[in-house]
Amino acid sequence: MKTISNIILALLFCSLLLSCSKDDDIHETPTLLIADLFEDTSIMENSSEIEFKVDFNRPSAVDGSIVLKVTSTNNEEFQTNPPVINGEIELEVTKGSGYSIFTISPVNNNLVDGNSTVKFELEESSEGISFGTKRTADVVIMDDDTPATASFVTPSLNLLENEPGGVEVKILLAGFSVPESSLLVEIEGNTDNYFISSYPAMDQNQRITIPVASGTLYTTFQIYPRDNSLLENHHDLKLRLVPNNAGVNIGSLSEINLSLKDDEIYGKIKSVETVTTNGKRDKRTYEYGVDGKVNKVLWEDETASQPSGTNNYYYSSNGLIESVSSFPGDGEDFFWENGKVVRSEVISGFAKVGYSLYDYNTAGRISTKTTYKLKTGGSFEQYSKHEYEYYDDGNLKKESIFKAGSNNTWVFESSLALDSYTDRMNPASIEIIPTLKVQEHLPLYYTFIKEGVNIVHYYINKFNEENRITERKSQLETVTYSYY
Which residue ranges form the domains of the chain, and what is each CATH number? Predict the structure, then answer.
């Protein structure tokens, strides 16, 4: 009997503990409900009713409410549901829901009165609801009656002649255009000569009509190259936005430059100018043919008897340099054997006045250039000899110059030693034969020796964003470079 009583007491005690445990669960403090507003956005004045949400971090465990503070630059531009009362909207929080909803209905007044901004702010909440990091949100109501203001996005564009996709021209629209509006772009320059087309297609007056949909923030059109074998050098065209009374105003950047870049010469050296500390100036400007080869060098040398001139370059049918001429009947002709120049002849007044012979080392590089000049009586005599040494990678290491002495001897005149080549490309190499480089890379310094005097040039280099050299400066001279 006593055993049965003990069992009953034990069961009653367990029941009491279980009851207490359930009470503890019921009265446990729930996790806070966190509310966040939506991201800033914009809607059109002619939009229908649009729904917005206040999101929770989890479904709500209880019913409650949230109060939004509402401020606006123009209260006549919109209505809300629930309505705004004394600058506030009260939203219901329903047990089990993960968000609360309200709507905005813009008022389309058919007036050009600009855009308006409605700001919402989480202000108050019932017990158990807290606010997250997104406590404010802006809704911009765009006036659909305001014409857009159109401006080009960038003041200039480049188009490579071999780019099949062409170039996209982007026009920014500030404000919103009326339905079925359009833009008119005029191209200044002879597009037939420069071989371009567009989409949408230009008309016979070189004008492009671009449709603009209501509410769009920008529009684009394409310019395409039509024939990359006929474009010579670079050309510039002007693209201009033209007023057309179609509901779009013209903004500040209404004209841009379009540069048509010949891919055969794009990035090639355009000019090299050297100015010494004592004011002497030498400049070379390069022009190229459609095949990308140099066809002219315009030179300026203030120390020469003739301060400027033009060297014209001529090539054989297989693309090898054949002649460089400064004037009809004046120049230098080059003669090839087995892929090497073995002889060149200097012509003046259509007569040969000198020639050079070239010897090569085992690596196929010029090792010696021996020059002969015409003397009185019609025969030729030794005049000078240039000897060349190279680094293993083919960059020129040293040039030594000798003048002809008596009894068939050579007398040292000067030398140029180049050292510490970098990995940067040299756009204007020393040339033994025109167009044939002997310096693929840039040296950091060189030593010039003449009459027992050593002059060392140490260079500080500057490069552009495409890693092309733009300036080399030493204690004695400054060399500047420009490119196509």
Answer: 33-142 (2.60.40.2030), 148-261 (2.60.40.2030), 269-483 (2.40.160.190)
